[in-house]
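HUMAN:
Just now I want nothing more than another pair of eyes on a protein record. I would be glad if you read both lines and explained how they fit together. I have put the entry right below:
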Amino acid sequence: MDRPCVRVPRESGEQTRQELAAAGLLDEDHQIVVDDGTLYLPVTDADALDDAHEVVYRDVPTHDGQETPADILGFDPSYERLGDIAILDEDDPARASDIATGILDSDLPVAAVVDRASKVKGDLRVRDWDVVAAADDAARPVTETVHREYGFEYLLDISEVYFSPRLATERHRVTEQVAAGEQAVDMFAGVGPFAIPMAARGATVVGVDLNPAAVEYLRENARRNGVADRVTAIEGDVRDVAADYDGWADRIVMNLPHSADDFLDAAVTLAGDDCTLHYYDIQHEDDPFGPGERAIREAAEGYDVEVATRHVVRSYAPHELNVCLDVRLSR
């Protein structure tokens, strides 16, 4: 069965392997293939990779002695992994049950299999899940897991918070820009996948979220990753919090792509004299950056606005792109 692989020259293979492993995207269940000076590194989620990686599909062998779900089921099922949870998107309950049994009976380190039961909904950005199967000896609630990416670990409950492992490389792209001593605000912080790496690079970070469960996980994850002294977690609407940090931020993350424009006035309040804004948006492919850029320029009265980067994060839907504008605001 063909699997998604990152294709790289052999001399770049080890560096790329380390990067994919750190992001939690290296498919440990399949072997790396060498063919005529080129390495093919199997990955778990091709959609999570940025444009810098060349993705191809090819047949790669499983690791010897490891029984996979495909070995048990006789076909290669489609699923995502988040920590030790396998996530399905199946309309047929009987098929979902068969796949779940195959996954749990395989050698994969999976403790539970869930099926999407709704789209992301509401102000708290959560979805419903059907628990299809779970191991008898699960040590945590079925929907709680620990996700690891780029050397950090995040405890979270998928039934209570929103989290997308597909944004790992994008989060890393942004947080690698952070310098020690910065003051940063994550306006929609969730369980901390932007806030915690920024703090680890020496920034003082304020993370705000409307979801009380997400804020509790943010605090716990700051402790787990040794940055609790540099992360302030606030439960509430960032528009109500902004006045308390008027002019404070050197860097702002706005990862709420469907409605970030509704919060630009708060971002401008938070921004200091020289501030970098990471603004996420979802727009039609014909003009993916224009609406966001126009909204920022309209809101940022009193600032010079320089768009440093126009970056496509991933394809979101047919003819729609998830994009990021890295914008420098200078008063």
